[in-house]
């Protein structure tokens, strides 16, 4: 079965699956062996070579979902990101990165690259001129993340890809927030797509994994480094991830729908100061999002009015859980000020548009009425407590 002939949900459910010839079971058997017979010098099978039967099966599925030629799966999103960056950058090279990227990726760059003699420049906006201005003679990679965390700003993927192509620069994108359901950057000209599969691909808050999708040629270049760094995923988790992806399409489409409804409701709420969701017409990057995304995703952020305490609000929620991670089927919420951006000063956060009352909301698959009710009761409770304090 070729991915070009079948639709998204059929890829999710079937593509790459291992046929159980012996017992005719409905799902891929799991091969946990770490030891395989030697058959050929070029076909040595070993989990750290990313080529066990389950790894190969899942890589076919993930590559097809992102419309790439090949993929590799890793033990974490950061293993995929670090291995891929080091596969394309060496001493004396330079990388241009969007400022608003996942904190772990920024830490990797800030803490490790100087030691390896790799130069880097951050772009403070998503303007293409600003990307162009940071390019140097030794720039080898441009790295973006869109929608970004936590303000859901959008970078014009096609424009970045075109800018880089003209100058023979490799482009990489962290597509975690959008997921392959809503955005396929390879079709927009991007060379390499990265995922924290811990998020939407896994979708149940019980798998730590990463993935990279690209051309056969680039994946081979990444593999040459990956086998040395050794960040492959255990076959049991590979199998769990294959199972999780079967419902990726229906999960994320439901999350898109819920997030849109919640964003609109919050936007009209008198106790909410701001809502950040690319699906809202009022979002400054809505038109670019409309152009490059087929759905606006399950992530949104909002700010309560200044007199309402976001920390207390979170504690009053009954259904929506406080969580450091995101993209599970259950709705979760996080304060960037207290978690992902806690190491920045208040002024630095303000400069990035992250105010103390900001909350990042990963919308799940629950009934939207129950989510609305939960938020409303939490707001009501903190307002009553505030009033009691005043009296
Ligand atoms: N990229 C994004 C956008 C993320 O949110 C995360 C984790 O939160 C990562 C990458 C890193 O992935 P992992 O935690 O699976 O290593």
- Widest β-sheet, arrangement of strands: 1-7-6-5-4-2-3
Q: What are the secondary-structure elements, in order, as H or E?
A: HHEHEHEHEHEHEEHHHEHEHEEHEH
Shape: globular
**Fold-level CATH name of the largest domain:** Aspartate Aminotransferase, domain 2
Return the CATH class of the largest domain: Alpha Beta
Cα-based radius of gyration, to the nearest Å:
22 Å
Structural class comes to alpha/beta
Characterization of this structure:
This protein is of the alpha/beta class. The chain has helices at 8-13, 53-65, 77-88, 103-113, 128-134, 157-166, 179-182, 216-229, 235-245, 248-268, 286-292, 310-316, 346-351, 368-390; strands at residues 70-74, 94-98, 119-123, 139-145, 170-174, 192-196, 210-214, 272-276, 299-304, 321-322, 332-334, 358-362. The strands form 2 sheets. The chain has a 7-stranded mixed sheet with strand order 1-7-6-5-4-2-3, with helices on both faces. A 5-stranded mixed sheet has the order 8-9-12-11-10, covered by helices on one side. Helix 2 (53-65) packs parallel to helix 9 (235-245), helix 3 (77-88) crosses helix 8 (216-229) and helix 12 packs across helix 14. The protein is globular.
